[in-house]
Structure formats: C-alpha cells, structure tokens
Amino acid sequence: MTGRAKYRLPGIKQWLPGRPGRWVIYILLFCAVFGDFIANEKPIVFREDGRYYFPAISGYLTGLGLDGNQYPQKDWHNTHFEFVLRAPIPYSSSYIDLENARFRSPFGKQDVESWYFRHWLGTDALGRDVLAGLVRGCRIALVIGLLSTIFALLIGLPAGIAMGYWGNTGIRISGLGCVIALLGGILVIFGIAVIIQIIADGAYGMMDLFVYLFVTGVLMALAIWLSGYLTRRLGGRMSMVPVPLDQIGMRLIEVFRSIPGLFLVLACLGLMVHPSAFFIAFLIGFIRWPTIARYIRAEVMKVKEKGFIQSAKSLGLPEYLVIFRHLLPNALGPVIVTVAFGFSSAILVESALSFLGLGLGIEEMSWGKLLNQARSQFDAWWLVLFPGLMIFLSVYIFNRIGDRLSEILDPRLRS
Asked: Which of 407, 395, 390 is nearest to 131 (CA)?
C-alpha cells in the first residue's frame, strides 16, 4: 500500500507573527480589495430625482474589467444630492486638489470646507491625498507580489520537478522525437514572445492573453505527446537518446543567475513608455523562477528516494499520479517558504522601481512614487514617513511569515 502525502499547510495562527501581524495582513488585504470604497471622491450611493445611483461600485466593476456605468465628470464634492453616502476618505489617489497643492503638511493650514475634506496625511506636489495614495499602494503592492509569485511558480515549479525527478537519464526519446520536441520548443518560444509582446503593449485584453497562453500550452503538450508517441512506436527500430533535463536546466539557471536581476528589469522597463503592473509582475517573476526551480529540484531529488515513492512506482501507478499525489505534496515546504520571502522581495523591487521613476504610469499611485516626490521637497517629511512605514511593515510581516514557516516546515530549526 502506498503512502499518501504527509504534508499539511499549517493554520494561519501558526505562521503569522502574532495578533499584530495578523491585523496588518488583514488591513492590507482589506485596503487592496475594497480601496475604491475607502478612498474615493465619487459617492458610494446617492439619490437624485428619486433614483439611486452607485458610481463607486460602477467604477470598481470597470476596474475589474467588467461592464460598469460610466458617469459623466462632475464636481462630486460640491454637488447637492437628495441622499448621499460617501467614502471615509473623500479623495481617490488620482484626484487633484488644486487648492491644496504644493506639499500641504498634515498639521499645516489647508483650504477645505470642513474637517471631513481635510487631507489628514497631507498632499503631494499636485495636491493628491497621501492617505488615498497609501490605500491605493496596498493594492499595487499585493497585486504585484501575488502575480510575480504566480509567474515564478508557473515557470520554476514544472522546471524543478522535471529536473529533479527525471534527471539526465530519466527520459529517452528517439532522434525523430528530438526533432519534433525541438520544433515544438521553437513554437513555444514564439508563443512566449507573443505573450510578452501582448503584456508589454497592453493593447489586448486579458481574454486575448489567456487565449495565447492556452495555445502555447497546447503546442507544448502536443509536442511532448507526439514525441512520446513516436518513441513508443519506433523505439525498437530507432536509437534512443537520453534527454539531459537536469543538465540543461542547471545551465539555464546559471545563465539567469549570472545576470543581475534588477538590471534586467531596468533594461526591459526602459523599452516601455507606460509599464503596467501586470508587466512589472511578469518581469519580477521572470527573474525569480530560478530560485524556486533550485529549491524544488533539490527537494524532489531527496523525496523521490523515499519508500512510499518506490512503492507507488512498483504498483505501476502512472508517473503523473506519483508526482502530483505523492511526490509534490511532500516537496512543497521549501517552495512555500520561498514564496513568503518572494512577496516581500517583489514589494521592495516595485518600490525601488517607482522611487527611481521607472515603475507604473503617471496616473498610478504607489508607495515608491510617494517616496520619489520627497526627493524634490526635503521638507515634505510626510512623504517619507508614511510610505516608508508601509513598506517597512509589509516587508517585515512577510519576512516574519517566511521565518515562521521555516521553523514549522523544517524540523531541524525547531531544536
């Protein structure tokens, strides 16, 4: 009887650093998901001529790529409504208050109608509310951290599993199969190039991107299947050639590690006029996949020699069942720790890029962009303190999560 996966992800109270850490995570997630209802000059709901309207909700749906009602531009602050429910912060990150421009201090005099419209954390050079920018920065930070981690896992996880499980001699194909695999690899590379171009241009929607991803995956699967089919059919009549997956993968990882990741990101961003959060996350994930591949490769090489893996093989189970049901769940520990540290690394990289003026477009607001404005106004201490504090808290919390997961998942660290 084969052994099942013994790995179980610890509960949230085990790997979060205490109650303060949990509250920081909850606040970041809440601001990222519901930021449009926390900081927005548009009302959440208002009534006019006996009808109810929901401009903030419509804008939220539009931002998600769904169809929402487009309301005409108006002075939302000075318009009289029969009934209105406003956001706690009456400014969005893109709203420009010209009457309070040029770095208004949180404790200085502000030209506002009432305390409700006061900029409690000050404004930047254009008059944008710093508190609204911090709320918007939560979404930017978490979205880039999550997407970059997903991209790194999509590349590094399959590569590490293949390198560790099959090694240099685990897969043998015929010469004709090699040619077909090579042609399939060229098609896949072409598909990846098209995907990168789509992300860089931003001229296509998410559905177009998913279509190209699906087509690229189908081409890869078709090349692998055809190569294996010809190997099985013609194996007795053609010489078999081992595919050194581990050697090829390690050489590729060495090439990536020899290139400074930040310089590669800067070079790619320099070619774009208006980089998007999706493209920045893709670049960060693209430079981080070798780390995940190395960790999962080492763990797979260790786990595949265990008795329950050998028992599963001896029972004649298909290799995909052995990998996904028995091998992979027991080798995920180091990867989960790497993901936690990767989140904080992605936040730091995005903040550094925005601080250098190479991050998101002008219309987007992030923590690094607020820090960047302090370079031209040294007296604007609030543009250093509050964004710097948000970057410090988020990076510290995710690093603490990584430390806790290391202690939980690695028994050697408990003693």
From this structure: 390
User: pLDDT tens, 254-281?
Assistant: 988 888 877 888 877 776 766 778 888 8
Classify the phi-psi angles of 316: left when phi > 0, otherwise alpha if psi is within -120 to 50, otherwise beta. left
Of 402, 408, 258, 404, the C-alpha closest to 342 is: 402
CA pair distance 159, 247, nearest whole angstrom: 12
Number of domains in the chain: 1
Distance (Å) of CA 153 to CA 129, 162, 280, 286, 336: 36, 14, 16, 10, 10
Q: What is the pLDDT of residues 327-375, one digit of tens each?
A: 888 888 778 888 888 888 899 988 988 888 887 877 788 999 999 998 8
Classify residue 247: in a domain, yes or no. Answer: no
Evaluate whether residue 234 is within a structural domain: yes
User: What own/partner pairs with CB < 8 Å and gap ≥ 24 does 65-72 have?
Assistant: 65/205, 65/206, 71/42
Residue whose tokens read 């208006």: 274
Is 216 within a domain?
Answer: yes
What is the rounded distance in angstroms from the CA atom of residue 288 to the CA atom of residue 159? 13
Token output for 326: 């028995």
pTM listed for this prediction = 0.81
Residue 78 backbone phi and psi in degrees, to 5: -105, 5
Question: How far is residue 180's CA from residue 204's CA, in Å, rounded to a whole number?
Answer: 31
Contact between 157 and 151 under an 8 Å Cβ cutoff? The reply is no
Containing structural domain, residue 213: 172-242
Give how far Cα 104 sits from Cα of 107, 137, 368, 380, Å.
Answer: 8, 20, 19, 8
In a domain, 199, yes or no: yes
Q: How far apart are CA 273 and CA 132, in angstroms?
A: 25
